[in-house]
Write a structure and sequence with these properties.
The chain is an alpha/beta fold. It folds into three domains: 163 residues, Rossmann fold (3-Layer(aba) Sandwich), CATH 3.40.50; 165 residues, 3-Layer(aba) Sandwich (Rossmann fold), CATH 3.40.50.1220; 191 residues, 3-Layer(aba) Sandwich (Rossmann fold), CATH 3.40.50. The chain has 20 helices and 18 strands. The chain has a six-stranded parallel β-sheet with strand order 2-1-3-4-6-5, with helices on both faces. The longest helix has 15 residues. The radius of gyration is 24 Å and the shape is globular. The termini are far apart.
Length: 553
């Protein structure tokens, strides 16, 4: 687009700056507050895709899942006020999951700020609790500078989301570009002196264990850790919703610390005399409400490795605090030899306990969800991606499905409902050839079911396993446990999910019995438009091992 003075407007400058950062795909809902940016992207339409979503929360989830899957910052574009508010759920997810993300928000013009103009919000205040940085591009000649700053911060140290507000008048102004190269990925290195002392402690331990988690990993670090642990005979556990850091079939895999963790694993963690924690903050969900390890000083010797120095010592006072990325730490770890082969029985025993705990249980009812989840690996490749949001249904996935390795799991560590479907759609957009399965609860699915329209538009259909018990199961479980038979607000009225999926041209099936699942799943795998399989679950089956009527007694 040429102008009479042949200078680009702010929207074009911003679009060019994004492309220079390597951005070739963004998610969002168009709004009038950033029309010049959309105009600027027209110039890059041959090599830039804008995925039009149906609600900003779904768009933010997709961008977050894209970033997890690719390692590149996800980019979201939303309009001011309501759009910015809707996007908050994905930004909070990115923050607690340490996912690099850049949120671009339209803003009222600089001549209208502080008047409570139409849809005006103060984004620095709004996002102060859940972003690494919030900026506003208030000068057209600083667009490249702000974009570079945003992409550096999103990818440095503990990765996370940043926000850039785009005042409308700035996007319409004309100016010269100041091209800036793509951001460096800045990750902390290793203090070798501290590392050597820490590994001396770990090498001399009689019951060493590793806990891996968090969002700053890559495939190389995961492979190195798994190979080293198997060579040295050290069991590796993963944190809440980080199960894909280690192939769950690897001999060193000991299971995950999350909701309803294996009691045998919890005992091993507590009895370990040296616990090497890599990448995991040791948050509430992983530590079972900070009860697995004592606060502030654990009884075992903890070596805590994190990309962010601000998190070291925040809750737990470790024996050694190491500010280092998982990639750099694992590279150094690969050169360490324990000096003696630890008793392999500890590693093999821990893996055997994981296998025993993940063996499917049989409970009341015609539909055995544990058996269905355990049956999936026989039908799908090891690199299949499983996504989920939040709800009791996810317990069956995490416990009975063995994840295949790095980026075979997309799940929100912040426990956000509605994540599974948008994440699965993003995964199919990124890699249409991979099998992608969204496991959703009925309440979870309905929070972003409108994004099936996005799947249809971009022909990015996942397979959806929709667990339907017509209630908000997690909250009902807590109600029954804390206030026996005093129930309020947890019943749900659902649509006909078969007709709903069909309205988007998606095949759909209903399974009320276990043996009805396999033929439906075979059809889903053969479909080029994915499929929805409704799994009708008895309300009594509230968890893999407890019935609803048994709670509160």
């Amino acid at each position: 687009m040429e102008t009479k003075n042949k200078l680009p407007h702010g929207g074009q400058i911003l679009a060019n700056a994004l492309v220079r950062q390597g951005v070739d795909l963004a998610f969002g809902v168009p709004g009038e507050s950033f029309l010049p940016l959309l105009d600027g992207l027209v110039d890059h339409s041959k090599d830039f895709r804008f995925i039009t979503c149906r609600q900003e929360g779904g768009a933010a989830y997709m961008a977050e899942a894209y970033a997890k899957l690719t390692g590149k910052p996800g980019v979201v574009m939303v309009t001011r006020g309501p759009g910015a508010s809707n996007a908050m759920v994905g930004i909070h997810t990115a923050y607690q999951d340490s996912t690099p993300l850049v949120l671009l928000i339209g803003q009222v013009g600089t001549d209208m700020v502080e008047r409570e103009a139409f849809q005006e919000m103060d984004y620095r205040r709004l996002y102060s609790e859940c972003t690494k940085w919030v900026g506003s591009i208030d000068r057209v000649d600083r667009i490249d500078e702000f974009v570079s700053h945003a992409f550096h911060i999103a990818q440095s140290g503990r990765k996370g989301p940043v926000v850039l507000a785009l005042p409308e008048d700035i996007l319409y102004e004309y100016a010269h570009e100041k091209p800036t190269a793509a951001a460096h990925i800045v990750q902390p290195g290793l203090d070798l002196a501290i590392f050597n002392d820490a590994m001396e402690l770990f090498t001399n331990a009689k019951k060493p264990m590793i806990l891996a988690g968090g969002g700053n990993w890559n495939a190389s670090a995961c492979e190195v850790l798994s190979a080293w642990a198997k060579r040295e005979g050290v069991p590796v556990a993963t944190s809440f919703r980080s199960q894909d850091l280690i192939d769950n079939q690897d001999a060193c895999y000991a299971g995950d610390l999350g909701i309803g963790a294996n009691p045998a694993l919890v005992k091993r963690i507590q009895e370990s005399d040296a616990l090497l924690v890599i990448g995991e903050r040791l948050g509430e969900m992983t530590t079972a409400g900070y009860s697995i390890l004592s606060v502030p000083t654990p009884s075992n010797k903890v070596i805590h490795v994190l990309s962010s120095p601000d998190e070291l010592g925040r809750v737990y006072r470790p024996e050694f605090a190491i500010n280092c990325s998982p990639e750099n730490f694992c590279a150094a770890l690969s050169e360490v030899q324990m000096g003696k082969q630890h008793d392999l029985q500890a590693m093999t025993g821990a893996h055997a306990e994981y296998l025993a705990f993940s063996a499917p249980l049989t409970v009341k009812g015609d539909l055995q969800l544990a058996h269905i989840m355990a049956s999936l690996p026989a039908s799908i490749p090891r690199n299949a991606i499983l996504t989920n949001g939040a709800g009791n249904f996810a317990t069956w996935v995490h416990r009975f499905y063995p994840y295949g390795g790095f980026k075979s799991q997309l799940a929100p560590a912040n426990g956000s409902m509605g994540y599974g479907l948008p994440a699965a759609i993003a995964a199919k957009i990124v890699d249409p050839s991979r099998v992608v399965i969204a496991v959703c609860g009925d309440g979870d699915f309905m929070m972003n079911c409108q994004e099936l329209a996005t799947a249809a538009r971009y022909e990015a259909f996942p397979i959806i396993l929709l667990v339907n018990n017509s209630m908000l199961g997690t909250i009902r479980m807590h109600q029954e446990r804390e206030f026996n038979q005093r129930v309020m607000g947890t019943g749900l009225t659902n649509p006909d999910f078969i007709k709903f999926a069909d309205s988007f041209g998606m095949p759909a099936y209903r399974a009320s019995k276990t043996d009805e699942f396999a033929p439906a799943f075979a059809k889903a795998l053969a479909s080029n438009r994915g499929a929805l399989i409704e799994l009708v679950l008895d309300q009594e089956v509230i968890s893999p091992s407890k019935l609803l009527s048994q709670l509160g007694k």
